[in-house]
Amino acid sequence: MFNFTTLPPLSLYIHVPWCVRKCPYCDFNSHDNHISLPENDYIDALIRDLEQELPLVWGRSIQTIFIGGGTPSLFSAKAYERLFSAIRALLPLNHNAEITLEANPGTIEAERFKEYRDVGINRLSIGIQSFDVDALKALGRIHSDEQAIKAVEYAHDAGFDSFNLDLMFGLPGQDEKKARHDIETAIALAPPHLSYYQLTIEPNTLFYAKPPQLPDDDPIYDWQLANQERLAKAGYQQYETSAYAKAGHQCRHNRNYWQFGDYIGIGAGAHGKITSASPAQIQRRVKQKQPQAYIDTAGIPANLVDQQMITENEVGFEFMLNAMRLLEGVPTPLFQQYAGVPISTISAAMQEAEKLELIEHTIQHIRPTEKGQRYLNSLIELFLNA
């Protein structure tokens, strides 16, 4: 039986499912449509969706908000202002809440960034992916290298002192020189945060059906190490598998995920994880995926298409799947607090991971070793049947 010593922090994830054009590598719930967006209807649906979630989180406050997609920057600042007003009316929102909006360079302009800042969005995540024109074309991106640079300048000019750039490596036609150029260009633009990760081919994508020619894994790993070292010299501390930040600019929303925190998920195809003390349980919830079906059912039971309770046998794997992405790991007592079961339930897997030199474990802390970081999937698999 679960025994939670405290409930985890609570975040809010909001999904906006439309894009100008779906990228061939993207496996997120996104749909081509930027001409006739049902902005008002969708905001109404998000509000109804949130109202339906309220009984699960009475008395808890929202610490962070992340608006992802799709391309959320296709929606106006006025739409988000109305949504935020409704959120504040329904739930306590921390006065210092981190509120992040994903934006793509091909869909924004300087004035819109300022408007987003004025309605309370205080962090951006800008989908650059690369500054190389050939790589952008191969990835199906709608923006140019010049638009990518302009987007970062707009963010600075609009007063965003916290924002992220998404960059990928191991791209079609990429070599060591091009990979280093992306990193050097990013560093010169001085973003407070970088997400830097390898392109992977995911099922249900165009790249999966028609795989592009990618560089070999061995040189990719060498580029990664060299560019990680360059980022460190420039003051970017790696704190998660693919996240690097200047001091004070780690993403609080994503850290909540990795520390097995709770999050409400609203929007088409959104996922949520909610812990409750009475009854003592952890549930995962999934909403209608198709945008029109989501709008039509928001606020009624048919909107919830999947609801699963995490069992006591599964929770150790679920916790470690997230926590071991953090290079610093997590305090050992956090396992009992948020997983709701004693650390002894995964002791056999912990011992095996220590034997393989994949983790370091004391009474105070659990963290992956450098070897564990490199072979993260192997480390996590040890806890699958723990």
From TrEMBL:
Any Pfam family the entry gives: Radical_SAM
Superkingdom of origin: Bacteria
Entry-linked SUPFAM superfamilies: Radical SAM enzymes (SSF102114)
Keyword Repeat (UniProt): no
Predominant subcellular localization, coarse grouping: cytoplasm
Gene Ontology, cellular component aspect: cytoplasm
SMART domains (UniProt xref): Elp3
Domain called Radical SAM core: residue spans: 4-237
GO biological process, one term: porphyrin-containing compound biosynthetic process
Keywords assigned: 4Fe-4S, Chaperone, Cytoplasm, Heme, Iron, Iron-sulfur, Metal-binding, S-adenosyl-L-methionine
GO molecular function annotations of the record: 4 iron, 4 sulfur cluster binding; coproporphyrinogen oxidase activity; metal ion binding
Cofactor: [4Fe-4S] cluster
The keyword Chaperone is assigned to this record: yes
Alphabetical list of InterPro entries matching this protein: Aldolase_TIM, Coproporphyrinogen-III_oxidase, Elp3/MiaA/NifB-like_rSAM, HemN_C, HemW-like, rSAM, rSAM_sf
CDD domains to which the protein is assigned, alphabetical: Radical_SAM
Compartment annotation: Cytoplasm
Biological role stated in the UniProt entry: Probably acts as a heme chaperone, transferring heme to an unknown acceptor. Binds one molecule of heme per monomer, possibly covalently. Binds 1 [4Fe-4S] cluster. The cluster is coordinated with 3 cysteines and an exchangeable S-adenosyl-L-methionine.
Family assignment from sequence similarity: Belongs to the anaerobic coproporphyrinogen-III oxidase family. HemW subfamily.
NCBIfam families registered for this protein in UniProt: hemN_rel
Name recorded for this polypeptide: Heme chaperone HemW
Organism: Methylophaga aminisulfidivorans
